[in-house]
Fold:
Amino acid sequence: MNDKVTFSEKDKLTERQIREIKYYEEYVSLLNVADVSFDPINSLKSRPWNSYWYVYQLAKKYFNNDKNKLLDYGCGYGISSVRFAKIGYEVTGFDISEKSIEIAKKLAKKYCVEDKINFSIQIAEKLNYPPNYFDIAIGFDILHHVDIKSAILECYRVLKKEGIAIFREPVEVPILDYLRNTKLIKYLVPKDTNFTPGRHITQDEKKLLEKDIDLIRNAFDEIKIEKFTLISHLDLFFRKFYGEKSSPLEILDHIIFRIIPISRKFGGDCVFVLKKKLD
Structure:
């Protein structure tokens, strides 16, 4: 496949896509991404209470030498792609930001996996891949930036029969998000466009609503949803105190969700595991 795909006149980018490109071109210019931590895929370490680490755990679970074509769905600057390649996957990553792809290629070369990763500049709603090509697709925080209906149908199209798609996404929780949108909380924690690493916010991103989840559910043949983030919403204020260590609040959420199953309905982040069946 061509690893030099760029946008052409026929792509007819939407205003939202143009804003996303502009935002991420500026955002990645502010970062200094030079290293990749492999802790999330280290077999000696595990954080099932962390939604990101949980996705990597699933990636390891589903890895099969005979079925190893992975699509990194909105790969950003390539950290996840490098990790997937280290697991053993033949990785294809795409992103809307050219600067992100440039960094991703440098990281792949630095960690000697450039021969296992193919990067290109594409939009999630119209992928330049053949049907039934990938064994697995994985995306971190991508669907709430795109047109979900178009993107999820494209994901389904490019997956092989019995292929798996895994997405980690923020979802709206009616009670909690009502409080989050009050004037006081918005004053304390603004929701305006933000370039702060770890808290960056684009103009158009929105948490997934129930209707969005229905679109995902209707597109795929099987769906499993794992919930995360209840009390650990407060990590926004406390993360600086424990750095890269496990969040005590995430661990507490993990315990609460299992002791009190009904509490899962208030989880603010989801990991979707989707399956495409044989016709």
The beta strands are 69-73, 90-95, 117-121, 134-140, 159-170, 222-228, 269-275. The longest strand covers residues 159-170.
